[in-house]
Amino acid sequence: MSQDPLRPPSPRTITVGNQPVTVSDVRDLACGLANVQLTPDPRFSELLRRSVEFLERQLPRPTYGVTTGVGASVHNIIPAEWQAALPANLYRFHGCGTGRVLGAAESRAVVAARLASLASGYSAVRPEVLQALCDLLNHDIAPLIFEEGSVGASGDLTPLSYIAAVLCGEREVLCQGEVMPASDALAGAGLVPLTLQIKESLALMNGTSFMTGLACLAFERSKSVARWACTLTGLCSEATAGNPEHFDTRLFAAKPHWGSVQAATWIRSALDRNPAALSPQRLQDRYSLRCAPHVIGVLVDALAAYEPWLTTELNSANDNPLVFAEDEVVLHGGNFYGGHVTFVLDGLKVAVANVADLLDRQLMLLCAPQTNGGLPADLVGVTGPEAVVHHGFKAMQISTSALAAEALKLSGPASVFTRSTEGHNQDKVSMGAIAAREALRILELCETVAAIHTLAICQAADLRGDRFGSAQSRSLRAAVRAWVPMLTVDRRQDVDISQVLKLYREGGLPISSREAAGQTIGVS
Predict the structure, then answer these.
(1) How many CA atoms lie within 13 A of 446 on its CB side?
(2) Which of these, 80, 258, 97, 113, lies nearest to 172 by C-alpha position?
(3) In sequence order, what DSSP letters do the residues of 184-247 get, joined into one string?
(4) Which of 157, 208, 339, 374 is deepest in the core (most CB within 10 A)?
(5) Which of 64, 91, 287, 337 is catalytic?
(6) Omega before 181 within 30 of 0, i.e. cis
(7) What burial class does residue 90 get, using C-beta atoms within 10 Å of its C-beta: 0-12 exposed, 13-18 middle, 19+ buried?
(8) 282 φ, ψ (degrees, to nearest 5)
(9) In angstroms, rounded to a whole number, what is the distance separating the alpha carbons of residues 402 and 167?
(10) Among candidates 267, 238, 280, 269, which has minimal Cα distance to 468?
(11) Is 64 annotated as catalytic?
(12) Is residue 353 within 8 Å of 407, Cβ to Cβ?
């Protein structure tokens, strides 16, 4: 079975504190494909401790979330004897998340993103706190985090409170596939719960790491979706006797958007026309084929443009206040605002939803006699008089239309739905957490459309016969047919869809010509 292009060939160790954490690092930590450690460089530990010591020395000067209440309660002055009680109260009163609980990989992505941010050294947290986050990742202890409840501006306070609570042995976790109290999971791993000191709870919670961690996962999934869509486009052109001229290199040299150039290259590699290929039946194909490089190219270019934004956010100090020990100053600001991440997510939502819509339109071309180059209507696999009572991919078309419509509906920008909240203290917010959830949902919808499209391509290849098809087409068909038989008489196809998605997510679905030849590639 070929290697998933989203996964590295073997586990590795990621060192935090001496170099930036990458988007793919977060992906690997989320998927359990890497361990993490803090850099052993003593200068890193010293950097963290200096910020803690300076914060303690400069008290009782007014410091948000230490000598004052939080949010609109900033006017509350907290006497020294009560300051130690504030960290636990902060994460406890924010324990009001609702909705779906994140999956283990999603939760680990959020933990990894928070670790990367705090490692910048401006948050006044002890090295022990960062080590505790490493321990959660290395021992497969994923905090149960509810996905609803953040407006993405004063940090992802509510979802991140579940990480702070777990470090202290409170709330629940998913540990090696089992839900259990955090205290039991920590004890089972030989870990001791923390008692968070002044500002540490606020530093863990008041940041963009929920939206950023999920954005890293969405980013990596979007790469693979772009590659998959290009393969399907090439095979759809082939199966419907399309005109390969639409993907000629000279066209894209004349309009050289890098993403479109790359998409056209991937489409050509999937076509790889052979002597058995059909002669083009049209001078110009419908836009969903002819313009496919320009549609998918937007997503490819967006990924290239947005990766620096996401990497900067991932490695930024995005809580408040920040402690600059070298300058002996504490500065109050708004680094917790998730505007850049939200913009990335809103952009990915639009680009991925357009790919879902493109693939839905291509499925129509495969199923319609007017455009499919002589294939049976709806790709019905039965011949003779009995064919009239079979329907092939008719309902599958309805499903992809429903999925694409939902993706398009969700693609509206979340950031423009800002709400004033928390006593009008948070009066302009990013809505990044909502954008992250919507992006992941759109990706799920797009991947499902692609899975149905894949089944249709394999059905078309079966109907054309064994001699038909490029190397990519034959490879894809062989991988699918090992698990899903050709559709002849009408049957349920939900199981088929699930199987193709499983193959894709486990790396068993070749979506590039080099994979077809037995070489694993990534999308870069």
Answers:
(1) 35
(2) 97
(3) HHHHHTT-------TTHHHHHHSSSHHHHHHHHHHHHHHHHHHHHHHHHHHHHHHHTT--GGGG
(4) 208
(5) 64
(6) no
(7) buried
(8) -140, 145
(9) 42
(10) 238
(11) yes
(12) yes
Residue 13's DSSP bridge partners are 35
- Tokens 């109050």, located at residue: 332
- Distance, CA of 252 to chain centre: 29
pLDDT tens by residue, the chain, 524 residues? 334 444 445 679 999 999 999 999 999 999 999 999 999 999 999 999 999 999 999 988 999 999 998 989 999 999 989 999 999 999 999 999 999 999 999 999 999 999 999 999 999 999 999 999 999 999 999 999 999 999 998 889 999 999 999 999 999 999 989 999 999 999 999 999 999 999 999 999 999 999 999 999 999 999 999 999 999 999 999 999 999 999 999 999 999 999 999 999 999 999 876 655 678 888 999 999 999 999 999 999 999 999 999 999 999 999 999 999 999 999 999 999 999 999 999 999 999 999 999 999 999 999 999 999 999 999 999 999 999 999 999 999 999 999 999 999 999 999 999 989 988 888 889 999 999 999 999 999 999 999 999 999 999 999 998 777 888 999 999 999 999 999 999 999 999 999 999 999 999 999 985 554 443 333 33
Tokens of 371: 């455009």
Peptide bond preceding 60 in cis form (omega within 30 of 0): yes
The DSSP letter of residue 4 is P
Instruction: Please name which of 363, 365, 364, 320 lies closest in space to residue 338, comparing C-alpha atoms.
Output: 320
Amino acid at 43: R
How far is the CA of 413 from the CAs of 272, 304, 401, 517, in angstroms?
39, 20, 22, 41
Distance CA 330, CA 319 (A): 12
Residue type present at position 146: F
Element (H, E) at 142: strand 141-143
**Scanning the structure block, which residue is given the tokens 């419908």?**
286
Residues recorded for the chain = 524
Residue 15, CA distances (Å) to 21, 34, 36, 84, 119 in order: 8, 10, 6, 32, 11
The structure's pTM equals 0.94
What's the rounded Cα separation, in Å, for the pair 360 and 368? 13
Contacts of 6 (CB under 8 A, 6+ apart): 27, 220, 221, 223, 224, 507, 522
Look up residue 387 and give its amino acid.
Answer: A
